Each structure stands twice: as C-alpha cells, then as structure tokens.
Amino acid sequence: MESRQSIGIGIVIVVALFAIFVYLGNTYPLTSTQTTTMPGSGYGTSSTGAPSTSTAPTTTIGMPTSGGNMEMVNMGGMSFPQSQLAAITITASPANLSQISRISLFRSCAGHDFSGYSFNGTLEANRSMKHYYDIPSSLVGKAHVVQIFSPFNGTLIFDSKTLDYPNGDQIVVQSSSANDMGVEIFHIDLLQNITIGTKVVSGQLLGYKNASEYSGFDIAYGPLNPAYPCGGRCQTPMSQGLDSIFNHMIPQVLAQYAAVGVTPQKVIAMRAFRDANPCHYPNETGYGSSGVNASAWADPRYWDNVT
To answer: Distance between CA atoms of 263 and 47, rounded to whole angstroms?
Structure first.
C-alpha cells in the first residue's frame, strides 16, 4: 500500500513540474528579438539595435520576426521587407572626413523639413531625417575639392540634371546588396563618366560638393519607391521611409567615424525627444531658400563636430 501511495505521489510531482515548465516557457520564451536602447549624449540621442551577431554592429535596428519569415513594414501604403530595412549596407564613408567640420543629427532641426516614415512604419514630421555634412570655411566656394564617395556597391538610378537645380545634382544610388534600398545625395557635381545606369563600387569617387552652395552636402537613406516614376511630388525613386546611415554601417566604417569623435549615439536624436521638441520651419531666407530655419542651422545642439 505504501509503495502504491509513493508511486502516486511521484506521478503528481512529475505532472506538477511539467505544468510549471510549460507555464514558464510561455511566459519567458528562450528566444526573442530584443531592442536595445544605447545611452545618449545628453541631447536625447539614442540608437536601437537588434541582437548582435559576428558580422553586424549593434547599431542596427531590431526587427521582430514571425514564424521565421521576415515581416513587411507599411509606410504610407508601400510595404518593404524588414530584412532589407535592417540590412547593413554602408561599407564606405560618403565623405572624406578630413574635409568635414561637423555632421547634423538625424532628426535635427537644421536645414529643411525632411521627414517621413521611420523604419518601424511610424510617420514623423517637423524634423530633418537625413544628415548634413558641413565643411570648414577654408573649403567654401572651392570647386572640385570636397570629395563625395559611393557608400556601397550599387547603380546610379537617378540624376536631377534634367530638373536644372541651381546648387548641384541630386542623385540616387541603389544598393546591390539590398535592392530595395538606396541613398540620396544632394548638392553634388557628378563626374562626367558617371551617368544613370552606371555601376559603382563602394568607396568610388562619385564627384565633388557643388561649390555654389557653402553649406556642404547632405545624404538620406531609405527604401526605393516601387511605383517610380510617378506623378505629383514623386520626383526621385526614394520613398517616404527614412533612417540614419549610421544605423547601417559596417564596424570598419563606424570605427572611422569614432576616430574623429562621431558615433551613432551622438548623431541620432530619439524620436520621443523630437516629438516633445518639434522643429519650426518658417519661410526664412537667411540661409538662402524658403522653408529653411537659419537660426537652427547655427544651433550647435543640432550638430556633432568632427575632431
């Protein structure tokens, strides 16, 4: 009798332990995609990251998966695969850092209102979701001096020459490793041998900062619009999705910037901070064009100095 009671108690214990194990497994799964917020510099800066691997830097965007398949992110009616949005594509600096004096923060108030959807599909407004590369006064007005390079292997798919912009070309280069992604570079004088359809390699000289505008040049990163060419304000192949190039740099390029004092934590402002401190874009002309906030351009809080 005692033997049967011992067996019965043992069975009850095993069943209880199994139930506890199942409960803990559902509550605290062994595998999950985490988002890490890195400490900022005191001006609301941050960078989010997916779990690190042996090849990807910790500054990439954390993207959840479902059933092992990458999901799609909707950006105003256009959807893009998370695998492309999270890709590490920037394999070379677009600038010769010895010719750069400072870099504007992603989500700063410097320059134009250049906003859209972040890479999690959230619509943002009243901010600049690109980086301006400013040059020292000693290089202002000098033609064919300030170098601009291709940040990855790709193809030139757009050139604004037909739009006759006064301050250099506006170009788009499509990434070869992530075909949905591209960079848009503003105020560049392209080399004559680089035209639409030209294949370029990472680090290749594309041209020079246009000398007619003193500020430097700027660069935006995001998915390409699958509906291009299209009407209305759709002037380039870029979509409304925007992210910092610093979230997509390989470790070697991040190290080059860190060597001159520039890190993702310092040049990416948090969305929550900018939401609480929105930019204002009056029709000022002090900087040279309507819609640019000249006072914000001079505000050092919106910049990270290259040392």
So the answer is: 10
The model carries a pTM of 0.77
Burial class (CB in 10 A: 0-12, 13-18, 19+), 74: exposed
Strand partners, 172: 158, 184
pLDDT tens profile 82-115: 999 999 999 999 999 999 999 999 999 998 889 9
Cα-based torsion angle of the residue sequence 240, 184, 94, 290 in order, rounded to the nearest 10 degrees: -90
Q: How many CB atoms lie within 10 A of CB 120?
A: 17
Q: Which two tokens stand for residue 78?
A: 């256009």
Q: Which CATH architecture has domain 36-305?
A: Distorted Sandwich (2.70)
Distance CA 158, CA 182 (A): 11
Domain boundaries, given as residue ranges, for the chain: 1-30, 36-305
